[in-house]
Design brief:
The structure holds two protein chains of two kinds. By secondary structure, chain A is α/β, with parallel strands linked by helices. Helix content of chain A is 40%, strand content 17%. Chain A is globular, with a radius of gyration of 22 Å. The termini of chain A are far apart. Chain B is globular, with a radius of gyration of 15 Å. Chain B is built from seven helices and four strands. A four-stranded mixed β-sheet of chain B has the order 3-2-1-4, covered by helices on one side. Classes of the chains: A alpha/beta, B alpha+beta.
Chain lengths: 416, 165
């Protein structure tokens, strides 16, 4: 019997199998099957994450880094194992570069309050873009108010792109830090972060990426991206709430003063003087979110168990299909049509306010986000007070896009 | 779980009179010679409405206008509010605020509201059309936003009020 050389068959992304891992997706809302299109706000959780968190509390819970007893040792090992999983996931050089925070917001505030207060002075410049989430605007405004530094805004093009040449104009010799989204939460734009990192470094500045959306939709290798800080939240990455990650180059973490004082972040304490523990403990004062970190580790394991290239292709196909179908609905205008996009689509519909749309869609079982998406300055630039946003995760289907479009047409019957 | 059929709830919320006021809001302008002015904000959704009013020496609202951006519910509510208030005393305006609040949260029905403010019974009938929001708890704030701004306006605070108090 002759045998042919084995032909590698790449199976199509098995979305049905993925959906079966997410218990909530089998429920109904208002008597309709749940169509969850708000993963950019917070993603649903697979059974593997839910089980991991349950196991912590039912089987393996104690405080970490303290007790010399079996359960505390186990909890500590699991907590630190989660840190190693995150390190691998973003290809950080060293596990000590992974700081757990309560979320991406806290991670950005940490960078502003420690790196910012220590190294950014009056007259220095911090550069953000017009597409930022409030959580990557307000911490820098607080820093500006405290230090007298200057906040500069790189513009966004009408289609939602961030143009490199325009960006270069706001970077200069006074720039100390560039703090920008990897992927816009409103427009889905994937920013040219590698190139911007090059611009920042050429000017002698550091660059921080807000990876809340980026890490969900793109493979992230922090060394390859060439950034200095990368932050993201666990709950958008199919993990628990209350856990986020700050990654920073070791030498930066070493140079930064502590964020909060308390237990776990010290080396020795006397009333005269306290010395700090090295990173990451230096930035993790107090009892950390133990179960949440372990849950995030489980989410990373889960994602690693999937073919992530196929998952990304699936999301891109969903986005292309949604853009085509939505554009065909009379009166609908897409907001965010940049060439490089992740699976997030905002839109407006003539005569129907996003809030009213969201209410009608909800009665069809469709969950979308309506409003300013915590990006009021961007809304003003776009000339809209609010948009409706459909955002897609690994578990969404083409049929769900059809349900969205059908519900929009029904909404027109109700509202127009 | 008792869920009303799809279209009944939605039709009650988005009934003809609401859509008419949303698409063609009355008194959608700032009153030039206003004696009070206040802004209402819903930080959750970014809706904003500015309410201006002219109160005459005898304590009656002579002209009420608004300007704002928002959903059909908040604009319709603002529009109906300006109509309902014209010529009313400040005391009646405050009772109307309470009535609208109670109608929207399902505490009272239209008849009970009318009994409380007989001098504005006709207006209450119209405003009762806002009570469809009681089936949509997150939308109650949309209906009450302009009324909160009005209260702030009459209290002479002249400042921004929010739904998140």
């Amino acid at each position: 019997m002759t045998s042919h050389p084995a032909k590698k068959i790449v199976p199509a992304f098995d979305v049905a199998k993925v959906r079966a891992d997410f218990p909530i997706l089998s429920r109904t809302v208002h008597g309709k099957p749940l169509v969850f299109l708000d993963s950019a706000a917070s993603a649903q959780k697979p059974r593997q994450v839910i089980d991991a968190v349950t196991k912590v509390y039912s089987d393996e819970y104690a405080n970490v880094h303290r007790g010399a007893y079996y359960l505390s040792e186990t909890a500590t090992a699991n907590y630190e194992a989660a840190r190693e999983k995150v390190r691998g996931f973003i290809n950080a050089k060293n596990v000590s570069e992974i700081v757990f925070t309560k979320g991406a917001t806290e991670a950005i505030n940490l960078v502003a309050a420690t790196y910012g207060r220590a190294f950014i002075k009056a007259g220095d410049e911090v550069v953000i873009t017009a597409v930022e989430h409030h959580s990557n605007i307000v911490p820098w405004q607080l820093l500006r108010d405290a230090t007298g530094c200057v906040l500069r805004i790189a513009p966004v093009s009408p289609d939602g792109s961030v143009d490199l040449a325009e960006f270069a104009k706001v970077i200069g010799p006074k720039t100390k830090l560039v703090a920008i989204a990897h992927v816009s939460n409103v427009l889905g734009t994937v920013l040219p972060v590698r190139e911007i990192a090059g611009l920042a470094h050429a000017a002698g500045a550091k660059i921080m990426l807000d990876g809340c959306q980026g890490i969900v939709h793109r493979h992230v290798d922090v060394q390859d991206l060439g950034c200095d800080f990368y932050v993201f939240s666990g709950h958008k990455l199919y993990g628990p709430t209350g856990i986020g990650v700050l990654w920073a180059r070791a030498e930066l973490l070493d140079a930064m003063p502590p964020y909060q004082g308390g237990g776990d972040m010290i080396d020795t304490v006397t009333f005269a003087k306290t010395t700090w523990a090295p990173a990451p403990a230096k930035f993790e004062a107090g009892t950390p979110p133990i179960a949440q970190a372990i849950g995030l580790g489980a989410a990373v394991d889960y994602l690693n168990s999937l073919d992530r290239v196929a998952a990304a292709d699936h999301e891109d196909a969903l986005l292309r299909y949604a853009m085509t179908r939505l554009a065909q609905v009379p009166g609908v205008r897409l907001i965010g049509t940049a060439p490089h996009k992740a699976a997030v689509q905002s839109f407006v519909m003539d005569g129907a306010h996003p809030h009213d749309l969201a209410t009608v869609l909800d009665r069809h079982g469709v969950c979308v986000r309506a409003g300013h998406h915590c990006a009021q300055p961007l809304m003003e630039i776009l000339g809209v007070s609010a948009t409706t946003r459909a955002s897609f995760g690994i578990y969404n289907t083409m049929e769900e896009v059809d349900v969205l479009v059908h519900a929009l047409i029904r909404a027109q019957e109700v509202l127009l | 779980m008792n869920v009303a059929p799809l279209n009944d709830d939605l039709r009650t919320l988005y009934q003809e009179v609401i859509l008419d006021h949303a698409k063609h809001p009355r008194n959608a302008r700032l009153v030039e010679r206003h004696t009070c002015k206040a802004q209402g904000n819903n930080p959750m959704c970014g809706d904003r409405v500015t309410v201006t009013a002219q109160v005459s020496d005898d304590g009656r609202l002579r002209d009420v206008g608004f300007e704002g951006k928002g959903c059909a519910i908040s604009i319709a509510s603002a529009s109906m509010m300006t109509e309902a208030l014209n010529g009313q005393t400040i005391a009646a305006a405050r009772r109307l605020f309470d009535a609208v609040h109670d109608l929207c949260t399902g505490k009272i029905d239209a008849d009970a509201a009318k009994a409380k403010i007989p001098e504005a019974a006709e207006s209450v009938d119209k405003l009762a059309s806002l009570s469809g929001v009681r089936q949509f708890p997150v939308r109650v704030k949309c209906a009450t936003l302009p009324w909160h701004a009005l209260m702030s306006c009459l209290d002479g605070k002249g400042q921004t009020t929010t739904t998140e108090k």
